[in-house]
Amino acid sequence: MVRQSRQVLIADQSAINREELSKLFQQAGMPVDLTEAATLEDCLNKLKKARKHPFDLALIGSFSDVDQTEMPSRLATLGDETVIVLITDAPNPALFEKALHSAIYDCLIAPVELQDINRVMKRASIPKDPLPILIVDDTRVMRKVVMKVLNESEFSLAISEAESCDMAVSLCRKIPYYCTFLDLNIRVQDGLQTARNILKLQPKCRIVLMSTSDADMRADIEKNGLASFLLKPFYPKDINRLLHTFLGLEQPNLTNPDFLASGGAPSDDVSNDPDKDDREYILV
Question: Could you read off the pLDDT of 140-197 as tens digits, one per residue?
């Protein structure tokens, strides 16, 4: 089988830096078509022109005439289809903080290593076809809330809704779902029994139980062959983290508190931003 060549943009004012990044792709043996940009404006123009056939990955370094902390806002509308990774010469807390709330996928600190390239390329190689997702909850408002959170994740998702266990099972007879988000306390038939019924139809479906109760569900999750448990409310970053694991991807640096702390980045303040709430979830 012929491996699909990935489209990669390397942007940096230094020809040496661009060459070093190109060498890493050669070392990795990845089938890529490399495009270079020596200025930020050229980089932005190339990203705009490629909107119909976007780059899979853009590695963007520094430019002497541009404050790097401005880049996340300038790239904000260009990262829907392209995995954008910024490269900084030293830990930059202001950059990390802005990147966390933008279209930036991750930040790397130079010198970039082969393992960094392998990690971000694996993310960029995930098929762009939407993952089929099912939400099962008997409360319409809660289904809409969960759908909003899922739609704000970085992954492309095709979402279906079921208001009852019977409806969920019926849908699962027709559609092969990648993942199901299932309310534990759904009426008529409890979530665990519904999960077992779904798994009989779709053994590979990853079922995530949801609940407002923070009771320890680890034993039930493991016993029933389920994928995870999420405590309501949860946020897009929780979905991103979960799907990274399901897809066999390493988590980006920007989700790693140690990475942020190494740059002196301010710690998450959940009192000011609910999307920074670090709730624990079970994953087996």
Answer: 999 999 999 999 999 999 999 999 999 999 999 999 999 999 999 887 677 889 999 9
105: amino acid identity, one letter: Y
- Cα 58 to its chain centre, rounded Å, is 16
**Residue 188: left (phi > 0), alpha (psi -120 to 50), or beta?**
left
CB 180 within 8 A of CB 168: yes
Spatial distance between the Cα atoms of 142 and 94, rounded to a whole number of angstroms: 35
* pLDDT tens figures, 45-65: 999 999 889 999 999 999 999
- Which residues is 230 bridged to in the sheet? 210
Task: Pick the closest to residue 231 from 282, 180, 174 (CA basis).
Answer: 282
Distance CA 48, CA 19 (A): 23
User: Cis (ω within 30 of 0) for the bond into 91?
Assistant: no
pTM across the whole model: 0.87
